Amino acid sequence: MTQQDFTFFDGVDAIAQSALGAPLPDLARIGARQPSTYEGAWVHEGAVELLMKMVGGYRPGRLQQKLQRSQLDELRDAELVTGSELTDGGQLLAAVMDEAEASFRLSGLIGSREVLFQCWSSEQMALVITQPGYHAVGNPEFAEQPTPEHVNIRVVPLLDLSTLMSKWVGLAPAWNFDIQPVEITMSAVEAQMNGGTSVPDGANDVLRDAWNDKWMLWSLEGGCPTGDLEPLTYLTAGRRGQQRLAQRDSGSIMLVPTASTYVFDQLEDRIQALVFQRDVTLP
Fold first, then answer.
1. What is the 3 state secondary structure string of 23-66?
2. Pairing of strands 102-110, 215-224
3. 152-195, pLDDT tens digit by residue?
4. Strand ranges, E, within the chain
5. Which stretches of the chain drop beneath a pLDDT of 70?
6. Which of 27, 36, 173, 181 is most buried, by CB atoms within 10 Å?
7. Residue 182: partners with Cβ closer than 8 Å, 6 or more residues away
């Protein structure tokens, strides 16, 4: 393998080379180079609340239109409302909500910032309302969100939902290796996410390398008329990929390296389980 082979990547991954004895490429920035996941309209949360009321049949009168002018203006700019009525785009959103058979909630923590990805799905479409995810938070080049109070809203094909979720949590190719020590405390994880530089005692090179990356704790929950999902919780650990969190009786946690392909399949499996009201098949 020549240096030219690494032009798409960022050189060689020293940890992977040491472990596997070959000059393997650093995959750290592949996820960030994927196309944007925020192609919908950016609106304030107050505008979303008004939109949800209108989806349910509410129509603001003249006085309410004056009181809610800023929210209505945002929805008009987003081409979801015209006057005080839903546009075709707004009607599509309403139809998805009316037919929704399942709902999903991805909650994330990046540093001290809490972020959300929420969606409601039918058999064919999904309504997605999201805040910026892993690659956007803290990225000085991300300028799509007008203010921290804005959320992104759009209707997407159901087939795209697992891909959008995966991008949001930072799922990407990664060289997975065991982290040592096997057990660490949640307080150590929280310290890392808030800028702490003290690596736990006994840390191997894998953990030391991951400690310098941006981390995101995320959890997927969801429900449908027949029941709710058990939460699926992972840590996105930068170039070291996805680490599944396993709680120990001692109160500490284990970080279990998990292939990105398996995590993607878990997300898709859970979407299908709720939409088609069947059991989850991938633990």
1. CCECCCCCHHHCCCCCCCEEEEHHHHHHHHHHHCCCCCCHHHHH
2. antiparallel
3. 999 999 999 999 999 999 999 999 999 898 889 888 998 999 88
4. 41-44, 81-82, 85-86, 102-110, 113-121, 125-130, 150-157, 183-184, 215-224, 227-228, 232-237, 242-247, 253-258
5. 1-9, 35
6. 27
7. 254
